Amino acid sequence: MGPTSPDMSKEERRGVHASRLQDGVTFQVKTMHDEHTCSNVKKVDSKMASQAWICDKILDYVKSKAKKTIVDVQIDLQRKYNIIVPYHRVWAASEMAYEKLHGKVENSYKQIPDL
Questions:
Q1: How much is the pTM?
Q2: I want to staple 83 with a disulfide (CB 3.0 to 4.6 A). Which of 16, 17, 46, 103 is the partner?
């Protein structure tokens, strides 16, 4: 960031102002304007939380047969990992977890004897 002036607006003064010390290697931060205007992680869909990642995190819920709705699981993920994940991704992850534990539903029908 370039030099700042008292006449500059807050938007113009964002960033860090630092100078190099006498050793020529180290910098010293003089001022830091760290006001953020962008959304924080809690308010944004976390793209890093894939179905597979969520599946691993909720496997114990599915194993315990806890009576939790997808919304309950969404809230738990938000509280525990500070992320917001869309309903459809949590639902797909719960299906994946169920399949991981119990196999595909279609395969269960194959085990029913023909009459």
A1: 0.54
A2: 46
